[in-house]
Amino acid sequence: MSTLQLNKAVVFFEVEILDAKTKDKLCFLDKVRTLFFSFHWYPARQSIRLDPKGKSLKDEDVLQHLPVGTTATFYFRDLGAQISWVTVFLTEYTGPLVLYLMFYFRVSFIYAPKYDFTTSKHWVVHLACMCHSFHFMKRLLETLFVHRFSHGTMPLRNIFKNCTYYWGFAAWMAYYVNHPLYTPPIYGEQQIRLALIIFLFCQIGNFSIHIALRNLRPPGSKTRKIPYPTKNPFTWIFLLVSCPNYTYELGAWFGFTLMTQCLPVAFFTLVGFIQMTVWAKGKHRSYLKEFRDYPPLRSPILPFIL
Amino acid sequence: HYEEAYGEARLKCPHVALKQHRKPGFFWWLVLAMAMMRFYIQKGTHKGLYRSIARTLKFFQTFALLEVGHCALGIVRTSVIVTGVQVCSRIFMVWFVTNSIRQIQNEESVILFLVVWTMTEITRYSYYTFNLLHHLPYFIKWARYNLFIVLYPLGVAGELLTIYAALPFVRRSGMYSMRLPNKYNVSFDYYYCLIVFMLSYIPLFPQLFFHMLRQRRRVLHGEVIVEKDD
């Protein structure tokens, strides 16, 4: 909460808010300080709450239904510069897509000059490029057409943090997989085939879950419901897991690790697993808190384990 | 007199366990200081000094990890990150630079940072101990919040010069490094790792230094500093 100090004479405003159609007086604000009406604090940045340390009120909250008397006190907090989720997702996913391709085509200055614009002699490297690019194209398209976001925006600094993470790891992985001195998997074709099956299975699974979650929520609404298995067999995992999208995502990256047999990829999978587990546990907890009849058999991310 | 004060403090101060930890810490650094002085007086040279105190140093420097735990638990009012960074860089210096790269153990820069660390830590531990006993002589407070202005930069200089001296030996021996091709498809070059470590002093050192300067203004001059996130 920023503290304001005004030493000079303050101008107070009286504000009337009327209904646009009926011209009924909806509310009257007395003694409003001018600062509050600065365009600097656009709605996405405003957090209004009943308690200074408490949770923010939602857009849908109605004054009459809040636990306040006839005089209500709200606390305002500036959430800082905001950026929309869609923008963040598009930026953070386009980076890896482009970067990986740059390493795949061995653009100048990455490897020794004699390797510039050459192609790898291992077919698994081509396969890996297709899988990686497919994965991020899928994510971009889902961001544009599938996902329904409950929050419109997030703090601006998140885009720098997220992009550093995705772009950094993508560059690190791509460097080694597309390196002229790359060593293909030990168990050769068998390993690659198995890895590809796991990868594709999990991609389809992940997509099915995203569609199922989208269908839970009608367009424009922000209602929350318990997700259940549908006719699609890939969604039957909902019986055992709260956040199967993360489960499938982990599986896909595990498949990619197996396919490339590259330690940086394994590392990326591990870090992603840790982060997704944290998110899944949070989501699971909020499901349990919100719904009395939440199925008890479900685990956050790994069936019966985690 | 000390026992009396200690006894009294036992009743008042809830963090007796902390004090009992503080005493060994203080003790080790004092031991180290005395060992170093004795060596220099006896031998007249600093060559071989590091070897003589190496084991003790490694042993209790690693114990300093507990410091970070104390901060995390809120027992001591220092930032976790600040202490964490300091402890990590010291452990890195002791275990991965001076311990592993024998050729630089007789460098003057090693003595420089050892002396600086010893002086800083003795002052710091005295400050904490006397503070917990509610019996803090002003000169210790003065020392803690003024000596660092000279000691910090000197310590950093010692550490950086040591790493710089170690670089050619690392390059030549290829220690802790892994090259392509290998079945894990990864490579690691300790030489560049050390260079990155040295460069990290550029953003980190000013932050630590100005943190201490802010503390100094607050403690010695009673200025109220408004921290950014409230």
Automatic annotation (TrEMBL), chain A:
InterPro entries: 3-oxo-5_a-steroid_4-DH_C, SRD5A/TECR, TECR-like_N. Gene3D superfamilies: Phosphatidylinositol 3-kinase Catalytic Subunit, Chain A, domain 1 (3.10.20.90). GO terms for molecular function: oxidoreductase activity, acting on the CH-CH group of donors. Residues 13-78 form the TECR-like N-terminal domain. It is a multi-pass membrane protein. GO terms for cellular component: endoplasmic reticulum; membrane. The chain crosses the membrane at residues 83-103, 162-182, 194-213, 234-256, 262-280. One of its GO terms (biological process) is very long-chain fatty acid biosynthetic process. It holds the Pfam family Steroid_dh. Keywords: Endoplasmic reticulum, Membrane, Oxidoreductase, Transmembrane, Transmembrane helix. It is found in: Endoplasmic reticulum; Membrane. The keyword Coiled coil does not apply. It comes from the Eukaryota. Residues 153-306 form the 3-oxo-5-alpha-steroid 4-dehydrogenase C-terminal domain. Belongs to the steroid 5-alpha reductase family. PANTHER family: 3-OXO-5-ALPHA-STEROID 4-DEHYDROGENASE, VERY-LONG-CHAIN ENOYL-COA REDUCTASE. This is Trans-2,3-enoyl-CoA reductase b. The gene is tecrb.
TrEMBL record, chain B:
Its EC number is 4.2.1.134. The keyword Lipid metabolism applies. The keyword Membrane applies. One of its GO terms (molecular function) is very-long-chain (3R)-3-hydroxyacyl-CoA dehydratase activity. It is found in: Endoplasmic reticulum membrane; Membrane. It comes from the Eukaryota. It is a multi-pass membrane protein. InterPro entries: Tyr_Pase-like_PTPLA. Pathway: Lipid metabolism; fatty acid biosynthesis. Belongs to the very long-chain fatty acids dehydratase HACD family. Catalyzes the third of the four reactions of the long-chain fatty acids elongation cycle. This endoplasmic reticulum-bound enzymatic process, allows the addition of two carbons to the chain of long- and very long-chain fatty acids/VLCFAs per cycle. This enzyme catalyzes the dehydration of the 3-hydroxyacyl-CoA intermediate into trans-2,3-enoyl-CoA, within each cycle of fatty acid elongation. Thereby, it participates to the production of VLCFAs of different chain lengths that are involved in multiple biological processes as precursors of membrane lipids and lipid mediators. This is Very-long-chain (3R)-3-hydroxyacyl-CoA dehydratase. It comes from Cyclopterus lumpus (Lumpsucker). The lineage of its organism: Eukaryota, Metazoa, Chordata, Craniata, Vertebrata.
